[in-house]
Design brief:
The complex is a heterodimer of chains A (585) and B (317).
Chain A: H1 3-18, E1 24-26, E2 34-36, H2 39-52, E3 59-67, E4 82-90, E5 95-103, E6 109-111, H3 120-131, E7 134-136, H4 173-183, E8 202-206, E9 218-224, E10 227-234, H5 242-246, H6 255-259, H7 267-281, H8 287-315, H9 321-340, E11 349-350, E12 353-354, H10 362-385, H11 388-394, H12 402-408, H13 413-416, H14 424-427, H15 448-471, H16 490-495, H17 497-508, E13 516-524, E14 527-535, E15 543-547, H18 550-561, H19 566-576, H20 580-584
Parallel strand pairs in A: 2-5, 6-7
Antiparallel strand pairs in A: 1-2, 3-4, 4-5, 8-9, 9-10, 11-12, 13-14, 14-15
Helix pairs in contact in A: 8-9, 8-15, 8-19, 9-10, 10-15, 15-19, 18-19
Chain B: H1 3-34, H2 50-60, H3 71-89, H4 106-128, H5 131-162, H6 167-172, H7 184-197, H8 209-212, H9 222-247, H10 259-280, H11 286-316
The chains are: A alpha+beta (585), B mainly alpha (317).
Chain lengths: 585, 317
């Protein structure tokens, strides 16, 4: 099954149903079938792709927009000021499709997709917030990441990218009061009643500062006693405009920003970004660099899951596990810092490879860890997961079925917990994961407990992968010799004048990545993290879309918490395991 | 009242309060030991003066009464918690002759005082006028009422066997056999109810730090918070010493140590158990706790009472 064949099949299926004229085909570096269609037809086409075609595209994987107004190189694409990009995923085909909708005018609008996918809700709000594109018929079209009082739409090209371009910030008292008034929760806005026939509801503001929310997020609960009638998530407190920064930083200097998107995922974020850049530039990464990358990524998966396991126990009132898991997390970070020179955000992968070769003695450190860690993990497993109170708190709480998970865009351990054996490392191997021997742990019920069991088992698999990296580390280069690999290998820079010039240019201006569009997704620590990058033949990205797993996961929380109690909500939050920066970017 | 009586009262008061203060340090060190870390080890030898530092700090913190609170109740609530626990210590006989008030209804007095303790939670949570505190207070009220019921019933077996409500007589009745053997079920139930009474993990739902932030005492600061804090540790000490009195023979023990030493050793053993539980157990959900209380522990406590009663009747006949 080659991409080209699939390409024609899905396009032909659409042509057969809707005729050829409404569509325009576009070829992209990632070979994902990309079709343009007018906004009148868009929802119908997307609905057909979800329900009509054989092997349907069940998941709305991503929805975003591009401000096309200052883009130079877009031959063959329909004229548009803004473009909506719908990215669908079919598990049956193991294929993606990208539908693009051109929009004209300064304040364009498009019909909403919320009737087809409920999960489109947040995505459309984000597009509205960032680009000022309105969605007709959206149930609650309002800013989601920026404060309500914000002027302008940040990802539009005319919006300033740094505070220094924006004039002096002042916060007089009346403005502060206005801002605070805007934060006041108004249940009617969300169609929530203040009372029912029997009782007045209590509206409880959980967060933005709350020990159980794992960061600055605000969850407003409509409570009947302690039972959650409904919940509203207020996000955006951690929004730092990572996507906007990508348009200002060079391809190379954006790498450290990716570290901080999922700030517990470390170099895993680098990988998602760099695989996309490398695909766009056509760089082949040497085998040794690939294995080094895999090893570091798995270390970060361990670090993340260890932190998760500790805080999971803590959220359920268990005090000790977090101390034990932090000790092991420190051991992981000792190795990470021995190799990369930093702990949580090492910024260590480079375009075309990694920053440096492995240091002398790395294998001793790693071996010592993989030998001793599994035993300790078993202890934590029996301390936390086998505890009867934990079981009573988690089994049957926050359930969703496989269909619901796909509907809401859930990936990663959350998807595997409901019995779906889907791991991008196996299904779409990247960075040489196909050469490793490991299992995909799956759960059955999709409840808090299964999500947790899957994570614990994933740690064992990560150790397996690390062990294989250790035993089979290939010799060779740690960075590609491709001219766009940044910075070039030091030895070559010192010997070869061409490389020296490239080095100079790529460090002063930054490498110029050939124009085109590309997406690549990886199995990050909490689900599928992907970068959709558009290059306009420039030193920085024209548009960088970061598809993060936590965003759809968080959107689902109200749906799975209804009817449970406040205490259950904490278990649900802990088992969904989002990271705030991963939601807000 | 004799001078001796006053000395005993002052002694018990001083001992109990300093024990609670000591526990603050002791628990932190012990938990740290369980959790592979150091704990407070800077102030004084082994960090024992950490408590002094903490108390000084608490005294100098701003004593804030929220403007939205019910001021009078808010101020009185923390006093309740300490007072009710301290009153209970009056009836405990630590050793022959060391007892502040040798009441014939000592056991009932303790139950009455522990019931009063609920008020501090409910009033504190209610007067704070904070949603989290309110939820904590409601949880506290429901939990305490539930566990009060069979806490009383679980002790009735002891009363039947000792033929007295007087704590001194109860200890003396264990001369030959500690009640933890014939009354094992009663002991287990009393222990569980006692943990609930002291609002310790796994029964710390009223404060449930990760859910309700600090529950009923979220709004309290300075020494008002300190009172709740002290109340908790006094509660732990009280329940531990009562377990010793009711089930482990109080001051009784081989003669090479004085009676008071035996009492202290046994009490400390149970205090350590309390701390170990805090270091290892998670927190069940509110409805699970209620269900467990009403559906499991209450029938068991009743069963224990009936069987003990029947056996004693048959024995005496």
């Amino acid at each position: 099954m080659t991409a080209a064949v699939e390409h024609t099949t899905v396009a032909n299926e659409l042509f057969a149903r809707f005729g050829e004229p409404p569509f325009t085909l576009q070829s992209t570096a990632d070979e994902i079938p990309t079709l343009w269609v007018g906004k009148e037809k868009a929802v119908e086409v997307l609905h057909y792709l979800k329900t009509g075609v054989a092997k349907p595209y069940r998941m709305l994987y991503d929805l975003t927009a591009v401000d096309e107004r200052s883009r130079q190189r877009r031959e063959g694409q329909p004229d548009s000021d803004f473009t909506l990009v719908y990215h669908l995923l079919s598990f049956d085909r193991n294929e993606d499709i990208r539908i693009k909708v051109p929009l004209k005018g300064d304040r364009p609008s498009a019909p909403t997709l919320t009737g087809v996918w409920e999960s489109a809700n947040w995505y459309e709000r984000e597009v509205f917030d960032m680009f000022g594109v309105a969605f007709d018929g959206h149930p609650h079209l309002q800013r989601i990441l920026m404060p309500r009082s914000w002027k302008g739409h940040p990802l539009r090209k005319e919006h300033p990218a740094r505070a220094t371009e924006m004039g002096i910030f002042e916060l007089p008292e009346e403005k502060q009061n206005e801002e605070q008034a805007l934060l006041q929760f108004n249940p009617e806005e969300y169609g929530m009643a203040r009372q029912s026939d029997q009782t007045d509801f209590m509206f409880l503001n959980l967060g933005p500062q709350h020990p159980g929310t794992h960061g600055i997020i605000r969850i407003i609960l409509q409570l009947h006693g302690e039972e959650i009638v409904d919940a509203v998530l207020d996000i955006g407190y951690h929004h730092r405009g990572a996507e906007k920064m990508a348009e200002r930083q060079s391809w190379h200097t954006f790498i450290p920003y990716t570290d901080r998107v999922d700030y517990l995922g470390g170099v895993m974020n680098n990988l998602a970004y760099l695989l996309t850049v490398e695909k766009l530039a056509g760089i082949r990464v040497p085998e040794r660099a690939q294995v080094i990358r895999v090893m570091l990524c798995e270390f970060f998966r361990l670090a993340n899951h260890l932190l998760w396991l500790g805080t999971f126990g803590q959220d359920l009132g268990q005090m000790s596990p977090v101390f034990y898991t932090f000790i092991d997390r420190e051991r992981v970070f000792d190795i990470v810092s021995a190799i990369c020179g930093d702990r949580m955000h090492p910024n260590w992968f480079r375009i075309g490879g990694v920053a440096q070769d492995l240091p002398n003695g790395w294998d001793g450190l790693v071996r010592e860890f993989v030998d001793s860690f599994p035993k300790r993990l078993n202890e934590y497993d029996s301390l936390v997961m086998k505890n009867r109170i934990i079981k009573a708190r988690c089994i049957g709480i926050g359930c969703y079925t496989r269909e619901e998970a796909v509907e809401w865009g859930v990936t990663g351990p959350g998807l595997r917990a409901c019995g779906m054996e889907w791991d991008f490392r196996k299904k779409r191997p990247y960075s040489g994961y196909d050469r490793f021997d490991f299992d995909i742990p799956v759960g059955r019920n999709g409840d808090c407990y299964d999500r947790s069991v899957v994570r614990v088992e994933e740690m064992r698999q990560s150790v397996r992968i690390i062990k294989q990296c250790l035993d089979n580390m290939p010799p060779g280069d740690y960075k590609s010799d491709h001219p766009l690999a940044t910075p070039p290998r030091k030895e070559k820079t010192m010997q070869d004048i061409e490389t020296l010039i490239t080095h100079f240019l790529s460090v002063t201006w930054g490498p110029v990545i050939p124009h085109g569009e590309c997406f690549h997704g990886i199995e990050a620590v909490r689900g599928s993290n992907g970068y959709y990058l558009i290059s306009d033949n420039d030193v920085s990205a024209y548009r960088a879309r970061i598809r993060t797993p936590s965003f759809p996961h968080a959107q689902m929380i109200p749906y799975i918490s209804r009817g449970h109690s406040v205490a259950d909500l904490l278990a649900i939050i802990a088992s969904v395991d989002y990271v705030l920066a991963d939601i807000d970017r | 009242m004799t001078v001796m009586g006053l000395v005993v009262i002052a002694g018990v008061l001083a001992a109990v309060i300093s024990c609670a203060a000591f526990l603050v340090w002791f628990e932190r060190r012990l938990l740290a030991f369980f959790q592979e870390r150091y704990g407070p080890n800077r102030v004084g030898p082994f960090g024992v003066f950490q408590v002094v530092a903490d108390i000084i700090k608490l005294f100098f913190k701003e004593d804030w009464v929220p403007p939205f609170s019910d001021r009078a109740v808010f101020v009185i609530a923390p006093v309740f918690v300490v007072a009710s626990v301290l009153m209970s210590f009056a009836v405990i006989s630590f050793a022959p002759g060391i007892c502040a008030a040798d009441l014939d209804v000592g056991l009932l007095f303790f139950l009455a005082m522990s019931s009063l303790g609920v008020y501090s939670i409910v009033l504190g949570g209610w007067a704070s006028n904070n949603k989290y505190s309110l939820l904590g207070a409601l949880r506290g009220a429901a939990q305490m009422i539930t566990y009060e019921v069979f806490m009383g019933i679980s002790l009735m077996g002891v009363v039947i066997m000792a033929d007295s409500f007087n704590l001194k007589k109860i200890v003396e009745a264990q001369e030959h056999l500690w009640f933890c053997v014939p009354q094992f079920l009663g002991f287990a139930i009393f222990f569980i109810a006692g943990v609930a009474e002291a609002r310790r993990i796994p029964f710390d739902l009223p404060e449930a730090e990760s859910e309700l932030v600090a529950g009923y005492h979220s709004e309290f600061s300075s020494m008002k918070f300190g009172m709740f804090f002290l109340g908790e540790y006094l509660g732990v000490t009280l329940i531990s010493s009562l377990i010793v009195v009711f089930f482990f023979g109080g001051w009784l023990g081989p003669a090479f140590l004085p009676p008071i030493a035996w009492f202290l050793i046994k009490t400390f053993f149970f205090i350590i158990v309390f701390i170990l539980m805090r270091g290892s157990l998670p927190r069940p959900r509110y409805d699970q706790l209620m269900g467990y209380g009403w559906k499991v522990l209450l029938p068991l406590a009743l069963l224990n009472l009936f069987v003990t009663g029947a056996v004693v009747l048959v024995w005496q006949n």
